[in-house]
Design a protein that fits this description.
Shape: globular
Mean pLDDT: 95
Radius of gyration: 21 Å
Strand order of the largest sheet: 6-12-11-10-9-7-8
Helix content: 25-40%
Distance between the termini: 27 Å
CATH class of the largest domain: Alpha Beta
Structural class: alpha/beta
CATH architecture of the largest domain: 3-Layer(aba) Sandwich
Low-confidence stretches: none
Largest sheet: 7 strands, mixed
Number of strands: 18
CATH superfamily of the largest domain: Type I PLP-dependent aspartate aminotransferase-like (Major domain)
Amino acid sequence: MSQITSGGMVNAYVPGASTAVTAEEATLISRRQKLLGTAYRLFYEHPVHVVRGEGCWLYGGNGEAYLDVYNNVASVGHCHPHVITALARQASILNTHTRYLHDTILEYAERLLATLPAELGRVMFTCTGSEANDLALRVARSATGGEGVIVTSLAYHGVTSAVAEFSPSLGRQVPLGRHVRTVPAPDGYRGDGDVGRAFAAGVRAALDDLTRHGIKPAAMFCDTIFSSDGVFADPPGFMAEAVAAVQAAGALFVADEVQPGFGRTGHGMWGFERHGIVPDLVTVGKPMGNGHPVAGVFGRADLIDEFGRNTRYFNTFGGNPVSCQVGMAVLDVIEREGLIANARDVGSDMRDRFRELGQRYPVIGDVRGTGLFTGVELVKDRTTKAPDPETTTRLVNGLRERRVLISATGPHANILKVRPPLVFGRKETDVLMAAVAETLAAL
């Protein structure tokens, strides 16, 4: 997803901006635009042409290796053999819709629900995170009788028509719905005082504004790592007051775990766990299948059952046998390879090393995050904290030229978004930090 900010498209290829594009790449770019249209975006001033992947690495046609520090979708690493074996084995036996009895979907549902609070007793499967958030919205509206939605100011929740209306990161060309209210992100770097209290105040103001305009609130959706807003994780527990305000108003809290879920935060399986809260609904997406199109909604039994009684809903291939076997293989890998602990330890070490680098380069204004999700904010001046998107762009593209793939986020596109596969280790961290240091020195 190419995020839109006040500074324009984040880390997008601009035709003619690079003289490094080869004739072969130029031909591919031309074919792509002719066949796929102009809506699709490419990363980097010099786009990357990859032909295969393995673990934390992507490879070009001539065998050149790129360290992937960005792809959370391939959550347990590109082409993990256990996941590929599970996919191929089940695809050779059966793949069909969920209107037949089949035990695989039940086994997978049991394993997933066992990782969640007991209050969340049901799961409905979809194929994408956008579909999952669309379904969560329908459940929330059915349960509350409301339609109002609250999100953070640069949130991204998907691309269906309904969900795009509350995904402000898609840009001004995709207008927000009249029933949508945005609240400031919980920015502990620029904000003063209690982050949780300030965030809750914004949520209460949004609830009041919805009511003032005769719109009954249905739900607040939050990506619990606030990745598009700039990566805000701390202090643990800061979301509790805002969630309580939403639920007290009769609306539901939907935790969008597409990015922070499945162990990425390094503190349990789910991002919301760090805040000591129990969502009414939880949405997940393709990282649960290591990129395979599987997603879903977890929810309170009363909400999901009431929705099912009142609404005809099915998703033809959501929860098909192949997807469920792939999903179980991902759970196997997370458990067997200790990837939650790996995210905790490697991510903590990485942030320490970014902070050490910040002692040499004052452009690094803040380093934050949890697990293998880190935001590195670049500023022109540490006192004023003025964003430095220009240096960020040069750094991202300089890293690409050193074959390290990363991107940027935030309202000014000045925050490095460090979100590698969960198998990312200390050796890969060494490669990343050496490349960042070399690029900053060159800048």
